[in-house]
Amino acid sequence: MGTFTEKIKEVLAAVLPVTLFVIVLHFALTPLTGQQMGQFLLGAFLVIIGLAVFLVGVDLGATPIGRLGGRFLVNTGKLPLLLAGGLFLGFLISIAEPDLQILAAQVQELTSFSITKWQMVIVVSVGVGLLVMVGFWRIIKQIRLRYVLWVTYGVILILSIINRPLFHDFAFDASGATTGAITTPFILALAAGVAQVTASRREDARDQFGLVGMASAGAILAVLAQGALQKSFDAAPPPGAGWQPPASFFEPFRLAAGVSFRDSLLSLAPLVIIFFLLHVTVLTLRGREKSRVYTGLFFCYLGLVLFMVGVMGGFMSTGHLIGNELVLRGKPLITIMAGFFLGMATVIAEPAVHVLTLSVEEETDGIIPRKVVLAFLAVGVAFSVALAVLRIYTPGLELWHILLPGYILIMIMSYFTPDLFLGIAFDAGGVASGPMTATFILAFTQGIAEGVPTADLLLDGFGVVALVAMAPLITLQILGLISVWRGRRQQKQTSLVTPELQSPGIEEED
Amino acid sequence: MSDRDLQPEQPVSLLTVISNPGKADAMARFALQQGARRACHFFAHGTVPGHLLSLLGLSGVRREMITLTVPQEEDSALMDSLCEHFQIGRELHGIAFLHRPDTGAVNSPDFYLIAVIVNEGEGEYVVESARRCHPVGASILKAMGTADHSRRTFDFEIVPQKEIVLIVTPASHIEAIYSALYHELHSDQPGRGILFALALERVAGLLDMAPDCENGDQEEVAAMPREADAQKWVALFTVSDRGKTAAIMDTVERSGGTGATVLHCRQTDDASGGWIDRLAHLEKEITLIITEADRARTIQAELTAQARETGEKLDITQLDVSHFVKLSDLRD
After folding, report:
1. A3, A289, A366 ranked by CB distance to B41: nearest
2. What is the ipTM of this complex?
């Protein structure tokens, strides 16, 4: 059936690794009960179907809306309108993100109501909106991404120093929460729509990459700014995250379904509103095109619900159990290794990762193949999950002990990385921390943390998302550096062989 | 990037293969080992026929297209071995077709490649229109048109996005498809698009689909403006590095061309290179200029002069176009 068959094939390749890895663990290390295994396999089945339907929906619905919106804003030719549009769109999609609502509720608990839930949601959304706006401004003014990132992360560093560590955790988790399954494809398409105007002019840079990274940075910035302004408060003890074995086979799926139906609707609502406003007020579209986008949005909804039910119903408890079992065996090295491979397999199944890698391949006409981006991304996330597990075992190793040197390295690398790869790297950071990480990997690490007496249940959970979001920034910049190195070498070779026919090759970076 | 072994005197053919995603790299490597000079990769968008599917928007599939530059004396043999090796010709394994640029008007070719250049978003509509009468396979490529110099936003010229629809058809159906397309698409607004055809030497993998209705409206055929009859039209195309096309476009416009279409692609000319070597390459841009034969000579001369001035190497290939039709007046 055309698109569906194609997507099912792609999605199978994406979800099978993690499924197989869990099965291998089942036989080798952590035997699961029959019911647990059945739940996991049913979950995997739902994830495959859901992801395929969702991705078809993204192609038909979310991406066209982003492109149309971006192009409309840039074609108005008015800078204030473009910037206001960026602020509005960034704010709207972020405020509806279910992950952010969950995070904000946790923050409200932990700060004993000195930061209320809605205060937190609105502050983060404003932050995302502002940085999307800055991202638009950068494209139009042709300011290089690295300069904007240096300023942004410089401010983040200053704010981090004057903040207490608790807010570091909130901030980096918020960045993961705002770039969810539906937000990321939309922002990617939005950037593509705006960047189209500059496409004919530049040779080396593809301005459409980097906006997701900017949006993530916006969330971090907003939370830290809020933390800096906040007067002191008594941190409440974290609520006990009790986990009970489910009553029946279908119980977890039923519970997940209730949540997913509502949350998915919430996260799609802004897109419906944006598209409705667009075609009622400013765009003239054929009836066929309109109905196609609405069909796409419906597929997005259906797919997202199935995906979330599968992940929450089948994957979460399995991840929790595996983590728990591994830690009881008392061999930290094996647990860390398991985390490594689990991280590697899981990120491949992340919905937004699929969208990003495909758009990278198409935009560069296959010069940066999808599989290569995926491999570098997977290795990065593998290391970060392993690090997160290591951190649980090591009391006193705070999040910033890893993040600070990590981001300093990233900023140094960004001086040498070509703009195209820099944009892809920062986008990848945003997409890697999607719903799969937020549920499966998080449950896995919490399962480990429960078995380690010195671990802080809630805070160690927060750290995972921050680490997963950081790793691709390093690995994909390495890919960029490889391209520079190869380019230099090829240029040297051509000039040695035929000096008179020296081809321009790649533009030298710096 | 080693176009150096491309001798312009040696006649070349263009062998194009459209296939499912994932196979094009292997095909290009195979062809390069067998003597092809270079391969250009494109990402295309195919459509699967089916009314319900297209209504729901599910008919789209991804396709990869490679165009191989092949020495003319070896083209047929290479096509044979490529088709055999990759099973092109069997059902749904893709389609391959061969065009010889310089042999000019082949006496009544059996097959044509119809190319329709329209504005972005209209490609699928073109495919539907063509299918209304004849079940054709079609692929859509993304392209850019000529900048409209009168309008700017934020200091950037607005470059219209275009789509190129490629349809391979037996010569017997071309008139009917033309009339169906012209009937559906022609308009009074300028810049609607153009239609042209290239005579094909050989085709493999074209499904033998019988038309499910009688030949198109005869009156429409008669009503079509037939530029092609009055003047010989040709297509010029150049391959250059990404970002270099702006200068080429300027030259084309200065020497009287009405506009050009730009396609992006990736070029490989070495069978041994893996992805890691590719990373450092720039994408290529193909500029396609459709114009009258005598004007084409001026443009070609200007472009060559320009290339000599800047010291860059630019190869220009000329293709003979048949059945050229404008869907509306060109802009400017």
Report:
1. A366
2. 0.82
